[in-house]
Each structure stands twice: as C-alpha cells, then as structure tokens.
Amino acid sequence: MNLHEYQGKELLKSYGVAIQEGIVATTVDEAVNAYEEIAERTGSKFAVIKAQIHAGGRGKGGGVKVVKSKDGAKETADAILGMMLKTPQTPGGMNGPGKLVRKILVAEDAYVPDFDSCEEFYVSILMDRQRKQNVIIYSTEGGMDIEEVAEKTPHLVHKEYIDPEQGLLPFQARKVAFNLGLSGKAFKQMSKFIASLYKAFVGSDASLFEINPCMKTGHDDIVAVDCKVTLDENALFRHKDLAELRDLDEEDPTEVEAKNVGLNYVNLDGNVGCMVNGAGLAMATMDIIKLSGGEPANFLDVGGTADAKRVEHAFRIILKDPNVEAILINIFGGIVRCDRVAQGVVDAYKNIGDIKVPIIVRLQGTNADLAKDIIDKSGLEVHSAIQLQDAADLVAKVLG
C-alpha cells in the first residue's frame, strides 16, 4: 500500500525522523492559509507547493513549484489542484492520461536561507529477498533518478546490509554518514537520521522507504525533503491506523472492486485474461500464456472457494479490460469441485450476456470429468482442455 508524501512524512516524524514540515490542502483557500501560516512560522516568503499523487517525478510534470508570495501560492495552487499530472511514473508515462491531483502539500522551503551550502543525498531502505536481509541504499547523488546514477556512476551508489535479527547496529549508521562525506554536526545528524529511519521502516512493516532528496541544510541539519513509503499489505492487520490512510482514488478502480469482492487481482498490459485458483498456478498460467505467444492481461486468483458468484465477479472484472481478446480459466479442483466451477462458468456466461471474446476452460481434479461434460453440453462457445499446454495452444489458436 502506497502512502502520499504528506502521510509518509507524518509516519517518519512519529519515529523521530526530521522532515520538511508542511500542511496539506485540498482547496485554493486552504493552500493560501497554509502558505501564510508557514511564512509566519519560518519568517521566509518562500514555500514549496507539491502535488500529492502516488507517482514519482512530479517535478518533471509541473507538479512541484516554489512560490514566494501569497498571490503566487494562490495562482500555483489553482493551477496544480485539479490538473491531470503526467510524470514518467504515471500510467502511460508522459504520453499517458496522467493522474488527477486532489491534494497538494504546502511545505517549508528547506533550502532557505543558505541554498549554496545545502547538499542532497539519496537514501532508501528495502528488503533484499535474495540475501534475506534489509538493505540501505544511499548515494551522494540525491535529487536524481537513482537508476540513472547506478547505470552511469555505480561507484557512487552504496549498500549497507542489515541482519534483521540483529537490527541496525550503531557503526552501520555511522558508516552511512562517513560514506556520504559528512563530518561534525552533519555526521551526527545523519547517523541519528538513519537510525530513526530504520526504526520507522521496521516498526511500520514497510517494504520500501525512499528519501530523495535527503538534505543537509545550511545549518547542518539532516531532513527528509521528499519521501516515498510503501507498506506491506500483509502486515496491515497490525497497523489499523496506517490501513486507514489508504487512498482508493489513487488505486486502479478495477483492483479496488476485485478486492471488495474477495478476489486477488492485479491489472497487467496483455491481451489474455486469466482466471485461476491459487497464486502459484496463476503464475504458471501466466508463464505458459507468454510462452504460447500471448500476453497475460491480469493476475487473478479466485481462491479456494470458486463458486458461481465468485466466478461471475471474476468474469465481469476481466471483461472491463478492453485489451482482453481471450480468457483462460485454469482451475485445479482440490478444495473446490470442478463441476461447481464449470456450472459457475456456464451461469456467469448466461447472466453476463453477450461475451464476445473466446473462453478456454481447463479444469483438473475433483469431478473434472463431470465439469468437462457440463461445459461441452452447455451449448456455449467455450473451449475445454485437459492439459495446461492444450489450453495454452487453444489460446494461441483463437488469437490467430
């Protein structure tokens, strides 16, 4: 689950991480009031207005602007609120439709008063699944795309691996500060920053923290100027307060609908809709579709109780994707009986009405023979298969 920048910063702050302070606004009037409050608090006329969407690269699309007056804040807030912001990370990239900006963050200008003495760093924490350890990735090249830095100047990207059982040790936090070239007060501040950041990462069951830039101010303080936070959804039962921060407006509406009816669904870019029970079987089904010349349009696990109602919900969700040219249903009847799934397919087909894409059904396991008989006698344009490869070959055939 992704958080907005302002939400992520509040989470970090609760663990003692120094942040660039700001006030969230949903209207132009709220933004102007926020600007005035920040100007009075800081004694500076400068502030930053940032669009709040679940995508990086907001500045490249015009979603981050520095303002230096009340009128400037009003004009900028009016321009950003309600815009369809396009960034390299929004759907379709800079050529896509973009994302609607519903909220903005009016923040202090962390570069005031001594811009020239400020330094930007990159800091992130995530899990290295291969090593089964958490890792802090950091660089002196903050404010840039870390992928570009890693490609062109890999020696500037450092990694510090952390044993999750031991946790972050003090010398490791100091090592990060040292490799970033810091000394004196800034060295101590960065060591403290890293320790608090790691504590927040573990304490919130996050899967990603990305601070870019992490900045050394003119006063040698270390603050998070921007942050990207992704939480592990499987751990949200331990964090009811964080679960309430979910912004459904920022998520794929089809995925939200699927979640509401108990389906595990992820939208992809292919042309073959998949309806499978079991995550492992779903992954294998996606692989064989690709090997047969198709492209999976989704990951969809209907779970172990694939009754008629659930199958119909799955059908309706898959058919909302205009790119779907065929649907492959692959069910292994261990817990669920294949004949019940087959009847669900037939009922769903009739209830939905005119389904114009070909459907391939492969049912194996309990009562598979009865299931095939139900499909074959239904009179519907449904192709049945016994082996998974046979089903994949049928997909390739109907796609031409």
UniProtKB/TrEMBL annotation:
Pathway assignment reads:
Carbohydrate metabolism; tricarboxylic acid cycle; succinate from succinyl-CoA (ligase route): step 1/1
| A GO term for molecular function | succinate-CoA ligase (ADP-forming) activity
Q: Name one GO cellular component term.
A: cytosol
* Annotated ATP-grasp fold succinyl-CoA synthetase-type domain residues: 2-214
Query: Where does the chain cross the membrane?
Result: none
What is written in the cofactor note of this entry? Binds 1 Mg(2+) ion per subunit.
- Which metal ions or organic cofactors does this protein require, according to UniProt? Mg(2+)
- PROSITE patterns found in the cross-reference section: SUCCINYL_COA_LIG_3
**Reactions it catalyzes:** GTP + succinate + CoA = succinyl-CoA + GDP + phosphate; succinate + ATP + CoA = succinyl-CoA + ADP + phosphate
Show the Pfam families listed in the entry: ATP-grasp_2, Ligase_CoA
Cited InterPro entries: ATP-grasp_succ-CoA_synth-type, ATP_grasp_subdomain_1, Succ-CoA_synthase_bsu_CS, SUCC_ACL_C, Succ_CoA_ligase-like_bsu, Succinyl-CoA_synth-like
Q: What is its EC number?
A: 6.2.1.5
Q: Which residues bind ATP?
A: K50, G57, R58, G59, A110, E120
Q: What is this protein called?
A: Succinate--CoA ligase [ADP-forming] subunit beta
**Gene symbol of the encoding locus:** sucC
